[in-house]
Design brief:
Number of helices: 12
Radius of gyration: 24 Å
Largest sheet: 5 strands, mixed
Distance between the termini: 17 Å
Helix content: 40-55%
Structural class: alpha/beta
Order of helices and strands: HHHEHEEHEHEHHHHHH
Strand content: 5-15%
């Protein structure tokens, strides 16, 4: 366990040094690598066989004895840095040649063909964040859909009284939630992604950092929280009719196009009144953790 924890956030040489300093465990970095890779393969094997899963279910997700069970889910894609073959070749160029009589070195792994690769992640958690469970995969959205459906079965998500998703509403996320988790009561657009698009539109119309830009975006964000997305589209259309600049009109058109297919996911006044979360912060944290470990 010490080896795996130390190697999760550093290379094997640093992990070996930390083990000697903190745990008085004197082993080589090569031994650390072997231990970590064996444990990693065991985890993957347990995951594939279905014996590795969450240690809680929806019944554990109550804020009080008489309160309803509630589970929230989020999904996202995250770019993880990789060690390319060119980098590995550069490192190996300076290696000393093996002398006669020395043990044969282990075969070198081939580096990645790309400096970054996308991993997909799905997270499940309760409002208190006391119970959390996340899964990641280097496979495509269908692979993640398979994982989220299996995890939902173990969590008994279909028995939750309140269950919904909060995400950036990417098409592949919406598709997998619709197919794999039809028991979700609502699918909510992360408020932060809506605000980012409003900021982009305000800067396109009024200029970056201008007082008018800040004032307009605060008005629009307040409007969507208090009155809903329909009134936002009304305001955006009214402002667009007063503009002649093609660039400014396009900035508002882009905001309208972003909102149009996501109107049902932006009923923020209803969601807030029901006590639902409208931010995907926990999923973003899982993305950061996953990237660091990879």
């Amino acid at each position: 366990e010490f080896c795996c924890r130390e190697a999760a956030d550093s290379d094997f040489r640093t992990a070996a040094e930390d083990l000697a300093c903190v745990g008085q465990i004197g082993i080589s970095h090569e031994t650390v690598r072997q231990i970590v890779e064996v444990e990693g393969r065991r985890v993957v094997g347990r995951q594939r066989s279905g014996t590795l899963g969450p240690d809680w279910t929806v019944e554990d997700c109550r804020s009080g004895p008489q309160e309803p069970t509630c589970v929230i889910t989020g999904a996202d894609g995250v770019m993880a840095p990789m060690v390319t073959q060119a980098e590995k070749a550069k490192r190996r160029k300076g290696r000393a040649r093996r002398r006669k009589g020395q043990p044969r070195r282990r075969p070198m792994y081939r580096g990645s063909d790309l400096p970054y690769k996308e991993f997909k992640l799905v997270a499940f958690y309760d409002p208190s964040k006391e119970h959390q469970y996340a899964l990641g995969t280097s496979g495509n959205h269908q692979k993640l859909g398979h994982l989220m459906r299996r995890a939902a079965g173990r969590l008994k998500l279909d028995q939750a009284e309140i269950t919904y998703s909060v995400s950036d509403a990417a098409p592949w996320i919406q598709r997998q939630y619709r197919i794999q988790l039809p028991m979700l009561k609502e699918n909510i657009l992360d408020y932060g992604h809506f605000r980012d698009n409003v900021i982009k539109a305000s800067q396109g119309v009024y200029g970056q950092g201008s007082p008018e830009s800040r004032q307009w975006r605060e008005q629009i964000c307040g409007c969507v929280l208090e009155q809903g997305p329909e009134q936002v589209l009304v305001r955006v259309a009214a402002l667009r009719r007063t503009l002649r600049s093609p660039a400014k009109r396009k900035a508002l058109e882009d905001l309208s196009k972003f909102m149009a297919p996501r109107m049902e996911m932006m009923r923020y006044p209803e969601f807030l009144a029901a006590g639902y979360e409208i931010g995907s912060g926990p999923t973003e944290v899982f993305c950061k953790t996953l990237t660091g470990r990879l």
